[in-house]
Design brief:
5-stranded antiparallel beta sheet, 19% helix, Jelly Rolls, 60s Ribosomal Protein L30, Chain: A, alpha+beta
């Protein structure tokens, strides 16, 4: 039986719902890896990045490792490795004179009315920034936005577009987003109105209403942020059934398609936790079973580094199962680095498939 087919069978048996098995990202080109032009100048995001645009005249930037002028990790506003892949966007969320920059994209499909969604993305404050802010705005619209302004995109501008309807969210945190070294996750959940076709991100407050923090003396540059890895998906609904099928194949490698990792990372993503919750409930129901976890990487990097990274990925899975309540003596794990790829390492899609975790369910040894 094909391993992918086994995965879907296992997913249905454990979770009892297709929605649990598939979390589709509604945002196309979510990490800006696909581009029409390798960036060579500032303010050309709308023309460089495939499927993305800007709703105003603000000069949002695009950075990619393919470029020597607008490259990653080093660029005119600082130095930052991409959170995922080689590309990310850069934009001013706070600047003198209410200057603002934004991102805009058409969603893969209209969001469903009354359905719960989660949206998240990663940000990092650029080194040359001398302010940090607390507020990130998310604006859904029924149609595209095009406003000839370089200042704050206000409600006055929006409601002049008579054919558009809007759904506005604001993510407010007690802390300022002032980390200039690491990426910080920004996220929120919401109920869709059923009119959401387009997504725009930025700061929709003017300077007077923006909660900001001065990070340097004589500040005048503003708050410039890098943004990467956007996700918009429907969280799973319902609970796993109490009774689970007993004919799941034992002692055979299985692959949860959602348990993959970002490049050079061992942090569990939210879809992975969905699968692991189901696995935990299965093992809780079947106390005579244990699980053996095997972790793998792509072939980028040295063998020793990949071995360490695969160990960390296995440990992340094991630690999560233990945090749910599974006894540590029912878990065995080992990393195998870049050994045994299941896809070609010549494409990002193939490398993503190779950054995986496999598991084998077996009976506990007496």
């Amino acid at each position: 039986m094909d391993r992918v087919y086994k995965y879907w069978l296992l997913c249905f048996l454990i979770l009892g719902s297709y929605d649990w098995c598939l979390a589709q990202n509604m945002i196309p080109n979510p990490s800006f890896e696909d581009y029409d032009n390798c960036p060579v100048q500032l303010g050309n995001f709308y023309a460089d990045v495939t499927l993305w645009s800007t709703p105003t005249l603000g000069s949002t930037d695009y950075f990619n490792g393919c470029s020597t002028i607008m490259g990653t990790p080093k660029n005119f506003n600082g130095e930052q490795e991409a959170y995922f892949g080689k590309g990310y966007a850069g934009l001013y969320l706070y600047a003198p004179g209410d200057y603002r920059e934004y991102l805009q994209v058409a969603l893969k499909e209209t969001l469903q009315e009354g359905k719960e969604y989660e949206i998240s993305f990663f940000v990092s404050l650029a080194e040359r920034s001398d302010f940090a802010i607390k507020d990130f705005g998310i604006l859904f619209s029924s149609g595209p936005i095009s406003v000839e302004t370089r200042r704050t995109l206000s409600k006055m501008h929006l409601y002049r577009i008579k054919e558009n309807t809007y759904h506005f969210l604001e993510i407010n945190y007690s802390e300022y987003y002032k980390d200039k070294k690491d990426w910080v996750k920004v996220s929120t959940s919401f109920t869709a109105k059923g009119t959401e076709n387009y997504l725009s991100i930025g700061n929709f407050r003017n300077n007077a209403k923006t909660r900001n923090l001065m990070t340097k003396r004589n500040a005048k540059q503003g708050a410039y942020y890098y943004i990467d890895k956007l996700d918009l998906f429907t969280p799973p609904t319902g609970n796993a059934p109490a009774a689970l099928a007993a004919d799941i194949p034992l002692d055979e490698p299985q692959v949860f398609e959602n348990i993959h990792f970002d490049f050079d990372a061992s942090i569990l993503l939210e879809p992975a936790k969905i699968d692991l919750n189901g696995l935990y409930k299965f093992l809780l129901k079947n106390e005579s079973y244990m699980v053996r976890i095997s972790g793998y990487t792509d072939n980028l990097g040295s063998d020793s580094y990949n071995q360490k990274l695969s160990d960390l990925r296995c440990k992340a899975v094991a630690d999560y199962l233990i945090s749910l309540g599974l006894s540590g003596d029912r878990i065995d794990w080992k990393g195998f680095g870049g050994l045994h790829p299941v896809a070609e390492n010549t494409t990002e899609e193939g490398r993503q498939k190779n950054r995986r975790v496999e598991f084998v369910i077996s009976r506990k040894q007496p």
